[in-house]
Amino acid sequence: MERWMTIYNHRKILIFHFLIANGMILRKLSASLTTGYGASCHSMHLRLLHTSCIRPLKKQRLRRNFHNPKPSNPKRSPPTIAPIVSDSTIVQWNTTITNYMRSGQCDSALSMFEKMSHRTSVSWNAMISGYLLNNRFDLARQMFDKMPERDLVSWNVMITGCVRNGNLGMARKLFDQMPERDAVSWNAMLSGYAQNGYVEEARMVFDRMPNKNSISWNGILAAYVQNGRMDDARKLFESNSAWDVISWNCLMGGYVRKKKLVDARWLFDRIPIRDEVSWNTMISGYAQNGQLSEAQKLFDESPVRDVYTWTAMVSGYVQNGMLDEARRVFDEMPVKNSVSWNAIIAGYMQCKNIDVAKELFDAMPCKNVSSWNTMITGFAQSSLIDLARDLFDKMPRRDCISWGAIIAGYAHLGHNEEALRLFVEMNRDGEKANRSIFSCILSTCAEITSLELGNQLHAQLFKVGLGSGWYVGNALLAMYCKCGNIDQAYVIFEEIADKDIVSWNTIIAGYARHGFGKEALRIFESMTRSGVKPDEVTMVGVLSACSHSGLVDIGTEYFYTMDRDYGITANSKHYTCMIDLLGRAGRLDDAQNLMKNMPFEPDAATWGALLGASRIYGNTELGEKAAEMVFQMEPNNAGMYILLSNMYAASGRWADVGTMRLKMRDSGVKKVPGYSWLHVQNKIHTFSVGDSTHPETARIYAYLEELDFRLKKEGYISSPKLVLHDVEEEEKEHMLKYHSEKLAVAFGILNIQAGRPIRVFKNLRVCTDCHNVIKHISKIVGRLIIVRDSHRFHHFRDGVCSCGDYW
Ligand SMILES: [Zn+2]
Ligand SMILES: [Zn+2]
Q1: Which among 798, 791, 688 is positioned nearest to 743, based on CA atoms?
Q2: Ligand 1: distance of its center to the CA of 765 in Å?
Q3: Which bound ligand lies closest to the C-alpha atom of 739?
Q4: Ligand nearest to the CA of 676
Q5: CA-to-CA separations, 660 to 540, 542, 609, 628, 784, in angstroms, rounded
Q6: 671 within 8 A of 682, measured Cβ to Cβ
Q7: CA-CA distance, 400 to 410, in Å (whole number)?
Q8: In the CATH scheme, what is the code of domain 1-37+374-486?
Q9: How far apart are the CA of 619 and the centre of ligand 2, in A?
């Protein structure tokens, strides 16, 4: 039986509580939306104006100065500009503008431009292309619109700018408005369409183009290659004979990317004149695809080797795990660049040879952000989080890979609060989260069961346009399942257009854990109907769906036919599900027989399933046997001691209960204190049994009394002799009424708006009495109460639980 979350650390809840209570996470998340991502064009525009290097620039002044070229601010001390100027002076000024722009000094360029008494179209064009160079697209467009007489260069610069800025619509509009066009204009449109995947449109431009040059031919060839249409590329290539080496390399590179090395080699052997790119493409093609001997042969033959050729060999050897060979080439390299260093460092990191990696990193003369990232990722993946953090704190510049590596490192070790804190800090730093950071943070969110934070991340994802696709979709799906919102999980599942096996497995397992076995099976059926082949994980989900919902016959049939139908051999998880399933139905003999016939030794989980079944049906003898096996394999499994101890208690064997307690004490097994928590308005409220620390204690207890009264009126009698599952402490009869889950549920009813479900999480299994009481409460208050315990979700509605009273 899979455990979702065995132990939940109090401290973590408190820290997270602190973060949320101070509005740190939520406020900063929303702040980052406006500052980090520029949610709309409008805010982007404002930001450009406010943060641009032309600090005091106001639109009005810009406009005024176009009509009045005199310097507007007498306090500035500019070079004096004569009223009549020679051509050479204008050329000089234009050069100055260009130089300012090239060094990123947009404000100096503008002030120069404003002071010029005479301007040529070259001056205007220098400003437009300068702004574009500095990613000030809006300012470039303003300049272009104000320009009194545009020439061909102005139009071409502006169209190219639109294309680079991803604004194909505007590029097309300008292109259609142009009084005359040259090859540059046509080629700009062609490459714009090609780069954005509009191959047909690119081809239309190419066909309409009056004077095609080699750039146009290479442009359309690249359009096909970049979009993976190698057959069309080949056809085009064969329709013309005047290709240059760029074209040959482009086509060859396309084949390499498609891993069609034979085709690539065929071209390589026929290139009239090979350049470095040809050699490098072919060598790295071989190297990346594991054909190291071919790569080495070409490398030895190659007439010119540059740093890329060498690096291709180093990376190839590293990627194929041949670290010694990689090191040999690396040491022989006459000139190394950062890529070569990073490749060899990554190689040592992958082999967990941390010391050598660190040595190389320290010796590296040209560290760039990738080098730091390689080290941080390596440390984080080796669970050396402190070393990773040390480098992360020291690194001069961070990118989203750095943030992703350190956040994933913390999340992987279960340091959820630190992962979230860093995520908030990243947003504050203005770094944009990529898909992998989002999916990491979504898993963290699932770990801490914060549906509210999960909802916010969901909204943020869609705002920044990362919400589609299976990668983030699966993380969202899992988050909603684990945070207890299975309906929303299903909505997400339906929205994922490119579902992969993980999407299907997640929703099936999700429904199973929430006790909606039939839903899980319905989805499984539609999965097989749509031609997706189930894997081992799918079948664990399917069998546990049957087991959680008591569908014994269906489950048994799936178990015995999955090999024939899907080629899946049962593993120990499948057997555990089956034993659970048979045990639930009271077929303890069948369960035991199945265990005997297992092709491998049963593990602790399998014995645990048998123990659980024995408890339900009061078969103490079988329970003892199963427990004995679990203790042998997992001497520290506190849950099993308590389970057995409770079985003794249920059959009145109090002496054995005492022995179990002694045994637990002697073997140093620690009881895990039971507690429950729930999220209300961005705060986590945690309760332990008989808790009196919560500020609303009095109100909660009074309400529980009231509920108790109403329950008794309905005829419900609490039975302290009921078998208790997990916690010794909670066994005390007078405490029964104040178990943590009851306190949490009462608090939820009092504080969560009517009509909304109450979601409570518990670190241990819910006890029988609480289970019964919560069922009745759900009926008398008319609320949906969802309780996640250490084994599964219980949906209490109208006096019934989705688990069918088996858990
Ligand atoms: Zn209880
Ligand atoms: Zn239940």
Answers
A1: 688
A2: 9
A3: 1
A4: 1
A5: 33, 36, 20, 12, 38
A6: no
A7: 15
A8: 1.25.40
A9: 22
From ligand 1's centre to the CA of 750, what distance in Å? 19
Tell how far the Cα of 536 is from the centroid of ligand 1, in angstroms: 35
**265-367 has CATH 1.25.40.10 classification:** yes
Tell me how far the alpha carbon of residue 774 lies from the centroid of ligand 2, in angstroms.
9
Spacing of C-alpha 344 from chain mean position = 27
Q: Name the amino acid, one letter, at 458.
A: H
Question: What value does the mean pLDDT take over residues 253-279?
Answer: 92
Q: Among 137, 130, 128, which Cα is nearest to 156's?
A: 128
Query: Which residues are CB-neighbours of 442 under 8 A, at least 6 positions away?
Result: 454, 457, 472, 475, 476, 478, 479
Model confidence over 383-402: pLDDT tens digits? 999 999 999 999 999 999 99
Ligand with smallest separation from the Cα of 687: 1
| Residue 716 CA to ligand 2 centre (angstroms) | 17
At residue 32, the pLDDT reads 35
> Half-sphere exposure of 337 toward its Cβ, with a 13 Å CA cutoff?
9
In this structure, what are the phi and psi dihedrals at residue 714, rounded to the nearest 5 degrees?
A: -75, -5
**Ligand 1 centroid to residue 414 C-alpha, Å:** 28
Which pLDDT belongs to residue 661?
80
Q: How many angstroms does the Cα of residue 581 sit away from the middle of ligand 1?
A: 24
H or E element that contains 517 = helix 517-529
Residue 82 has pLDDT above 80, yes or no: no
**Maximal C-alpha separation, the chain:** 112
pLDDT tens string 693-748: 899 999 999 999 999 888 888 777 665 554 444 444 445 545 667 889 999 999 99
Ligand nearest to the CA of 764: 1
Give the separation between CA 278 and CA 585, rounded to whole angstroms: 68
Q: Which of 334, 394, 328 is nearest to 361 (CA)?
A: 394
| Predicted TM-score of the model (pTM) | 0.67
Which of the ligands is closest to the CA of residue 766?
1
Residue 761 C-alpha to ligand 2 middle, in angstroms?
A: 13
Determine the Cα–Cα distance for residues 184 and 172; give it in Å rounded to an integer: 14
Every domain of the chain with CATH number 1.25.40.10 lies at 265-367
Residue type, 140: A
Q: What separation in Å is there between the alpha carbon of 606 and the centre of ligand 1?
A: 26
The alpha carbon of 609 and the centre of ligand 1 are apart by a number of angstroms equal to 21
Nearest ligand, measured from the Cα of 513 = 2
Between the CA of 802 and the centroid of ligand 2 the distance, in Å, is: 6
CA of 794, nearest ligand number: 2
